[in-house]
Amino acid sequence: QVQLVESGGGLVQPGGSLRLSCASSGSIFSENHMAWYRQASGKQRELLTAITSSGRTDYVDSVKGRFTISRDNTKNTVYLQMNNLKPEDTAVYYCNARRPHDPLDYWGQGTQVTVSS
């Protein structure tokens, strides 16, 4: 069973930055495909970015150039560096993990990010 715990959310002004962390346990982290999603109030959860076990990354257009996903396999942690934040980035941000040969998705509890002046 994979456990994920996000941290680093909060209130930030437009144009500011935050770094989210997601600590993983209960699996061989280095083998896992990791991703960040977000869900704004009244909207569906959306995939933002993902990183494979080999470190290949991908981003949706709305965050490309502003957000960076990275992983530290020695700390079993995936990060999301968010720069130039906009009010429309306000949402609950979730960490997601997928293990090889496991059909299940694993989720953290989410961390709130609010971008407002």
Protein described:
This protein has 117 residues and is mainly beta. The chain has strands at 3-7, 10-12, 18-25, 33-39, 46-51, 57-59, 67-72, 77-82, 91-98, 106-107, 111-115. Strands 2, 4, 5, 6, 9, 10 and 11 form a 7-stranded mixed β-sheet that branches. A hairpin with a 5-residue loop joins strand 5 (46-51) and strand 6. It starts with a strand and ends with a strand.
Keywords:
mainly beta; seven-stranded mixed β-sheet; 117 residues; 50% strand
Number of helices: 0
Q: Mean of the pLDDT scores?
A: 96
Main sheet record: 7 strands, mixed
Are there runs of 5+ residues with pLDDT below 50, and where?
A: none
Strand and helix order: EEEEEEEEEEE
Category from helices, strands and their pairing:
mainly beta
The N- to C-terminal Cα distance equals: 40 Å
Radius of gyration: 14 Å
Shape: globular
In what range is the share of β-strand residues? over 45%
Count every beta strand, where a strand is a DSSP E run of 2 or more residues. 11
Helicity, as a percent range: under 10%
Summarize the structure.
The chain is mainly β and 117 residues long.
Task: Itemize the secondary structure elements and their pairings.
Layout: E1 3-7, E2 10-12, E3 18-25, E4 33-39, E5 46-51, E6 57-59, E7 67-72, E8 77-82, E9 91-98, E10 106-107, E11 111-115
Parallel strand pairs: 2-11
Antiparallel strand pairs: 1-3, 3-8, 4-5, 4-9, 5-6, 7-8, 9-10, 9-11
